[in-house]
Amino acid sequence: ITGPGQVCWGEPLNLQAHPSGGHGLHTVAWFIDDDLVGTGNPLHLDSLIATSEFTYVFTDDACGISERSDPHEVKVNPKIVAGNITGGNSPVCYGHPGGTLEAHPSGGSGTGTYKIKWCNANGDSLGNGIFFTIGNLFNTSTYYYSVTDIIGCGPVKSNNKTIDVFQNLVAGPITGGDP
Predict the structure, then answer these.
(1) Which side of the chain, N or C, has fewer Cβ within a 10 Å radius?
(2) How far is residue 27's CA from residue 146's CA, in Å, rounded to a whole number?
(3) How many CA atoms lie within 13 A of 18 on its CB side?
């Protein structure tokens, strides 16, 4: 069996069997433990969420002979949880700083080392790291971050955090009185 020995949580998986011999028509049936998970070659799974041991059974349809392959383990890395954004000042006065936002990812592989990219509601990249300091705001603004773990699993998107901004104070004209 050829294919990856490790995948990210929820990632698709493709495995290829390499049977040989037999006569004429043959079938390939794929198993995790003793549970049938697919037929044909290659095997495609839309998502794998648990470490699994795969085998296939190669059957020569003309002769009715079957042979089981050696096992192939595929390790699934832990799921990344983006977590929630904390911090920030909301609402803020027009032209005042929006405060500092903090990311709270968990899970994934590695030792808690993540790549974090902060974005605005349009998806524009604003900065990297656990903390993001918002400058002076003149409009209500929304932020989120995407997180990737140390081995490249992800990105996973966080919730949105909106910082509301009060309208600008404008002094109107003076009216009334005698000319």
Answers:
(1) C
(2) 43
(3) 6
Query: What SS3 class is residue 79?
Result: coil
Q: What are phi and psi of 160, to 5 degrees?
A: -90, 150
Task: Work out the number of other CB atoms within 10 angstroms of the CB of residue 17.
Answer: 21
**CA 21 to chain CA mean position, Å:** 42
CA distance 145 to 3: 32
Which position has the token pair 């209500």? 140
**β-sheet bridge partners, residue 43:** 15
Query: How do beta strands 6-7 and 72-76 pair?
Result: parallel
Q: What is the pTM of this model?
A: 0.77
Q: How far apart are CA 32 and CA 127, in angstroms?
A: 43
Residue type, 17: A
